[in-house]
Amino acid sequence: MPTPDFLGLGAGDILGAMITPAVLISASGTLVLSTSNRLGRVVDRIRKLTGEAEELPDGTATEEVVEKRALIADQIGWLTRRLWLLQRALIVFYASIGLLVGASLTVGLSASTKGALGWVPVGFGLLGATGLLVGAGMLVREARTAVRSTLHELDHIRKVVARKTTMPVVRNEKPEGGQGE
Q1: Phi, psi (rounded to 5 degrees) for 9
Q2: What percent of the chain has pLDDT over 90?
Q3: What was the pLDDT predicted at 50?
Q4: Measured over all CA atoms, what is the biggest interatomic distance in the chain, rounded to whole angstroms?
Q5: Angle at 38 between CA 158 and CA 125, to 5 degrees
């Protein structure tokens, strides 16, 4: 029994067209893995800051404690933005994978209807690829947010280092009364 001929395409051509979105699906998987790792690092950083905040003394208003509280509050704001961007990017990447799988599957459907539904796999493919572009844009925004957050933290560290290096050095001198060695 000969294989059916859809629009002059052989089974190999149809399977080739169905596999083409697999390259984009593979790229999407890599982006999902990378984004998930970034999300995990943000969650770890939030947990670390939570611990630091809980260790700060209550009711103490020294300059160091006030600055540390301000830094933690600032970092929580930046991390919240990053968290939302990463979550949305993951959603977009997962939707893109679904659309690209849909494109792959509907190539066969289109071929079986002699091209009457040719717009379906093209539409799925275009939407899936557009999702990858949008998700990549979100990751660029998240990376820029991460850099700005780190720069703010570095400003705080510079202030702490400057304050600690301008403090007078306390020498280990002999106590009064001539006691000692």
Answers
A1: -95, 140
A2: 46
A3: 93
A4: 113
A5: 140
Residue 31's pLDDT is 92
Q: Which two tokens stand for residue 164?
A: 């600690």
Structure tokens at 130: 């557009």
Between CA 127 and CA 102 the distance in angstroms is 10
Whole-angstrom distance, CA of residue 141 vs CA of residue 82:
9
CA distance 39 to 139: 11
CA dist list (Å): 51 to 41, 56, 69, 72, 152: 15, 9, 12, 10, 20
Give the Cα separation of 89 and 146 in Å (integer): 15
How many angstroms separate the CA atoms of 7 and 149, rounded?
56
Give the start-to-end residue ranges of the domains of the chain: 11-165
In terms of average pLDDT, the best of 49-53, 82-86, 176-180 is 82-86
Report the distance separating Cα 29 and Cα 3, nearest Å. 34
115 or 152, higher pLDDT: 152
